[in-house]
Amino acid sequence: MNEMISPDMAPPGPFRRLTRDSLSERAYQEVRTALMLSRLAPGEKLLLRPLAAQLGISATPVREALLRLVSEQALQMDERGTVIVPRIDRARFLEIRALRCTLEGQAGEAAAARATQADIAALAALHDRLVAAEKRRDFATALQTNEAFHFGLCRLAGMPVLLGLLEILWMQCGPLLSHLYAGGAENPPRHGHLEALEGLRRRDAARVRAAIIRDIEEGGRPLLDFLP
User: Which residues contact 24 (CB under 8 A, 6 or more apart)?
Assistant: First the structure.
């Protein structure tokens, strides 16, 4: 029998409690968001009952959500059936990075022709929030705001299929991105956001594409030190 776990049994964790219908989909969205925003670490185990307790739902929809993420290669299942956040190697990271450069670069080109002044101002505000978060050593907010900038730019392209592919890539590399701030506030990752913003203002598609590719490649270079 699949019983609801009492809220009193719920351990602390990075997930919000779920109380509405479509629990499997909502559990999927919660875990996916945690992966994309680097709230889960490479090698971390996602145990079914504790995770269900954190979300405030029964184990069945959580199991369905985890299996869906395993099928998307965002999570792995070991020989004992335990679901784990993957540890990606250098070759896989470089493949994901190359795909991100292609897709986000293409999205940046398309966004240059579509972005309004209000859109550009919103992206500029996100970049300012990112820099402010880095200065006060709020690295969780910095990671979240960096993700918001990249996806905010890509949404301006009006390419939903491309956006869906990028979400899968970010789920796979998100846990590793937490290492971007391993050097602390004294050595934050380099950003190409300002150059991309200037390209948007000038409607210079090639400039936006080049800036985003440089941001992905140079900003993520410190991650190579953590990969076998």
Answer: 60, 61, 62, 64, 65, 68
